[in-house]
Amino acid sequence: MKYIVITGGVLSGIGKGTIASSLCYILSNSGVKVTALKIDPYLNYDAGTMNPYQHGEVFVLDDGSEVDLDLGNYERYLDRSLNGINNITTGKVYKEVIERERRGEYLGSTVQIIPHITNEIKRRIRKVANEDGLDAVVIEVGGTVGDIESMPFLEAIRQLRREEKGQVFLGHVTLIPEIGREEEQKTKPTQHSVRALKEIGLQPDMLLCRSRNPLTRDVKRRISLFTDVPEEAVISVYEVGNAYQVPEVIEKQSVIDIIKSQLGLQTSVFKDTWESYKENLLSPKTFVNIGIIGKYTELHDAYISHREAFNHATGNTGIGVNIMWLDSDQIKENPSLLEKLDGILVTPGFGYRGVEGKIFATKYARETNTPYLGICLGFQVAVIEFARNVLGLEDANSTEFSSDSKNPVIDILPEQVGVKDLGGTMRLGAKKVIVEKGTLAYKLYQEKEIMERHRHRYEVNPHYIGEIEKHGLIFSGKDEEGIRMEILEIKDRKNFMASQFHAEFKSRPLKPSPLHLHLVKMAMEYKKDKIQMEQRA
Ligand code: GLN
User: Fold this and answer.
1) pLDDT of 85-95, one tens digit each?
2) 426-453 pLDDT, tens per residue?
3) How far, in Å, CA of 509 to CA of 316, rounded?
4) In 10 A of CB 532, how many CB atoms?
5) What are residue 3's phi and psi, to 5 degrees?
6) Which member of 376, 385, 459, 518 is catalytic?
7) What is the dihedral of CA 174, 508, 85, 42, to 10 degrees?
8) Which residues, 6+ apart, have CB-to-CB distance to 132 below 8 Å?
């Protein structure tokens, strides 16, 4: 088994995750069976209870694990589904060690960071590596070298390297700032960061240097001189227009040959499967405006998988998506914002803030025939709006937002009643959805049974389903028992859809989410019709 470990230095947020994901892409397209492991040094057990404002979107895996959004990147670049074991946090490691201590498994010895915590970290790394048929694991260590929280993980990597001689390759991501009018590339922060790594016994094999412009020969030479990393292994990761171009930038600098020569990996000739995808993505032939209506719209990372799903739609159709981020709290005051849109996406969410704005946008879409997609809370909002304005149940609501509504059309899932802990207790992960033949949903999925990922506590109240369907809303996807509503559409209308599940989590560059793809196509039709109507007028 080969391990390719990626650490970070100088600053956080310089794209370590994208670089590590890009390595996964290049390796897997060079015939290497590779998976990813993300280490998050924070104390939280997982990302499930984190606020999107601080941390961006909470990503959900097939097995129901709630994880950092970086795991989404790995899945998209690898085109492979990951599970909870592909994410290690300090919380998971300590919980395990303390539980083992309580069971008396350490036989009376003093439990310490070295060796008990580091052993548990290595055990988890090897567990990922144990998967059948795998050649390599790319491990991203979150945080930057020198952070107190990363220390036990880096120490575990040092030990792993000692135990797995010649099998562990270390790449270090740093920043090369460009200063002054001459934009001189400065190497000092990289020198310091590598020194910090060396102090803990880790000599990097490759440096991946982020900078605005490509590194000059001279700068590469200087970095190599100060860090003992061979010049050809100083890789320039300069600014590109789109993150999907990063693999090609680093692949051209022979990273595979460098890794291969050190680890003795078997590879085949690299094949860039994204070529036409990227062409569409970088120069779309036409554009549509899609409004993402949410309450965390200032932080685009909170909806990163939706943005990616639209990228995937663009890459497969050549229709570019201009995303307009619309704060659901402000929609009612500024309804004209909606008029510029060719399509509307109502986002997932928790809590009442912003919900009335989402309902307003949904009503607008339904009444003006604007293409619409509601996801999770967006699905529930579509039901509330329909109940209020078509069934005439004025106070229809979700019991999440109102305990005294006489028409709780959205209600808590029966198994959620009495659940107190917030972490890891929702209806989570991949579940089977049965798609009704002859519906729009069936046309899009072309399959009777699909697996989609979930993260919710509330659902359509079964008491209202008959009445709602009588008025022309169709539940075209249900769970296996037929009691949980999963997809909705409006009778005789092809551009209004919503899903209780999160179609965005399974969207991949070459396999876009059918729902997001459909919204983009419908937005294009809508835009064309609008232009035609204007010309006629
Ligand atoms: N708050 C809603 C629920 O718990 C929707 C959740 C979501 O949008 N992810 O069911």
Assistant:
1) 999 999 999 99
2) 999 999 999 999 999 999 999 999 999 9
3) 8
4) 10
5) -120, 130
6) 376
7) 40
8) none
Strands 168-175 and 206-211 turn out to be parallel
The strand pairing partners of 497, in sequence order, are 373, 489
State the burial class of residue 235 (Cβ atoms within 10 Å of its Cβ: 0-12, 13-18, 19+).
buried
pLDDT at residue 207 in the model = 98
Catalytic hit among 116, 312, 454, 502: 502
- Give the chain's domains with CATH numbers: 2-273 (3.40.50.300), 277-532 (3.40.50.880)
Residues 6+ apart with CB under 8 A from 463: none
Distant-in-sequence, close-in-space partners of 286: CB < 8 Å, separation ≥ 6: 318, 319, 320, 524
Residue 96's H or E segment, with its range, is helix 90-102
Binding-site residues, ligand 1, Cβ < 6 A? 348-350, 376-377, 400, 455-458
What lies within 8 Å, CB to CB, of 417 at 6+ separation is none
Distance CA 530, CA 381 (A): 26
Which pLDDT value is given to residue 14?
Answer: 87
Helix/strand/coil for 532 = helix
**Residue 467, SS3?**
helix
Catalytic site includes residue 504? yes
CA distances (Å), origin 331, targets 46, 196, 265, 356, 523: 33, 50, 55, 9, 20
Quick check: is 376 catalytic? Answer: yes
List C-alpha distances in Å: 167 to 5, 17, 151, 401, 511.
Answer: 11, 22, 21, 54, 33
Return all residues near 472 (Cβ < 8 A) that are at least 6 apart. 390, 490, 491, 492
Q: What is the mean pLDDT of residues 71-91?
A: 96
* pTM of the predicted protein model: 0.94
Give the residue carrying structure tokens 């500024």: 334
Rounded distance from Cα 57 to ligand 1 centre (Å): 13
Residue 281 exposure: Cα atoms within 13 Å on the Cβ side: 22
Closest to 177 (Cα-Cα) out of 145, 210, 208: 210
Protein residue whose Cα sits closest to atom 1 of ligand 1: 350
Half-sphere exposure in the Cβ direction for 141 (13 Å, CA): 30
Q: Report how far apart, in Å, the C-alpha atoms of 448 and of each of 136, 438, 451, 477, 486 are.
A: 36, 10, 10, 9, 13
